[in-house]
Amino acid sequence: MKTLQRLFETASRFCMEAAKGMILLFMVAMSVIIMMQVFSRYVLNSSISWSEEIARYLMIWTALVGASVALRQGSHVAITLVIERLNQKALPWVLLAGKTGMAFFLFVLIKEGIAHGSFFVGQKSPAMEVSMLWPYAGLFIGGIFMFIHLIPLMLNDIGLIFRKPVSPSSIPER
Question: I want to staple 92 with a disulfide (CB 3.0 to 4.6 A). Which of 40, 52, 143, 160 is the partner?
């Protein structure tokens, strides 16, 4: 189990670094494109036809890939009122149940991302005329990154169930 945990932790670290790089690239690209659009519209009195569309698609990718970073860092919104009041035997089970529900949601997200990407692969975006596969691929990539981050967290919870009980204070700060 330790080897499996290390393997998924390494994959998670790799995805985290890739996600950070992607987010940086997307944010810089969005900023430059939007500044070009503002300059073009208000100074040159001519609008760039594709700028709003690409900014929208970059924002979708940024949100989905950014959600994976938040999952890895434990930064998603959480209601800890119940968890803080659980006894030490029930805590890892409840944490694992929550992560299992999240895994199911991510499975559906990935599956639907593939389905939508496949369905719309022949459709072209209005302004840039690129395949709509690219915007929908963000669902798949973001979902895969989140799932890869979730596996070591689930393995940790399983380890807690079969080892010593944990206290609520050992839950990472949110």
Answer: 160
